[in-house]
Amino acid sequence: MPRQRAGFAHIGRYATIAVVSVIFGLAVVPPTEAGTEQTIRSISVIGTRFEVTTGDGHIVPQDDLVGAVLTLGDGHDSVPLRIDAVETDPRNPDGAIMLYTMSTRDAATGGWRNICEPDIEGRRMGFPLAGTWTQDGRHVPSETAFSITCTGGAQAKCARFGYRPWEKLPDGTPLWDHHQACTRMIRADYCGDGVGHTRNGTPIVIYDRNGIQQDEAAPGMAFEAAWGVDGALCVSRTRIPDVLTMEGLAAICPGVRQMPQAAACESNAGALILNRSIEP
């Protein structure tokens, strides 16, 4: 797993869950060069990749998925999802993360529309992640269901930062919990109830004790909080006092420890993710 330097991360909206689905089947696959139809044996989500296996056991190359239409459903309704483009994430040159441009039918016009809003770089792409997400922001494992997250959302950001929930640390520790803690931090979800307390475009510095993201001194940035799977373990200062003050935090999350002495909070032994944000 490549180590990454933290630098600044800009906070976008919560990950756009375009579909929480079980794959029913592949409605259309572009024909082979010989022009023959491809029989599909199975479709699965591996990491961030759609993996399509044909009847003869051949795995369809990622580039050949362009133009394919997946039929997705939640057991009640189904929707078409067209893959319009595929590329390797430029932030992850090891090829572990694939990015897809995806469209679905517009109910009003019948035309195809991109399912993702632009991220801070203007990219309108995303990828699937195994599992589903609850209203309070918990990532629930599943062998059949998956969510689609766009690059402007917390789930995608955290995977692209290196907290890949399908991978493990060298000591065998799964990164699932690190990814979960990262999504809490991205959204300033101090209480772990799915409610964020930040604004789009707010810069932060993200780091951890495993070297996936490394701490960097940045002018005007001060320690904010230590994070676990259920939200903040301790908070030295809230990210944006105009959005939520420390007094307000105490009122809505009485169980979250307030520790104005940053060094004490930063040394919290249970912290999976730590962060700095702009000091008012």
Quick summary:
With about 280 residues, the chain is mostly beta strands. It has helices at about 155-160, 175-185, 245-250, 260-265, and strands at about 5, 10, 20-30, 40-45, 50-55, 70-75, 80-90, 100-105, 110-115, 125-130, 130-135, 140, 145-150, 205, 215, 220-230, 230-235, 255-260, 275-280.
* SS-based class: mainly beta
As residue ranges, the low-confidence spans are 1-28
Biggest β-sheet strands, sense, barrel = 7 strands, antiparallel
Beginning-to-end CA distance, first to last residue: 35 Å
**Tally of contiguous helical segments:** 4
Strand order of the largest sheet: 9-8-7-6-3-13-10
The Rg value, from CA coordinates, equals 20 Å
Q: Helix content range of the residues, please?
A: 10-25%
Protein described:
This protein has 280 residues and is mainly β. It folds into 2 domains: 1-13 and 164-280, no CATH class; 17-151, no CATH class. Helix content is 11%, strand content 34%. It is built from 4 helices and 19 strands. The chain has helices spanning 154-160, 176-186, 246-252, 262-266; strands at 4-5, 9-10, 20-28, 40-46, 49-54, 69-73, 78-88, 98-105, 112-114, 126-130, 132-133, 139-140, 145-150, 203-207, 213-214, 221-228, 231-235, 257-258, 273-278. Strands 9-8-7-6-3-13-10 form a 7-stranded antiparallel beta sheet. Strands 2-14-19-16-17-18 form a 6-stranded mixed beta sheet. A hairpin with a 2-residue loop joins strand 4 (40-46) and strand 5. Helix 1 (154-160) crosses helix 2 (176-186). The longest helix has 11 residues, at 176-186.
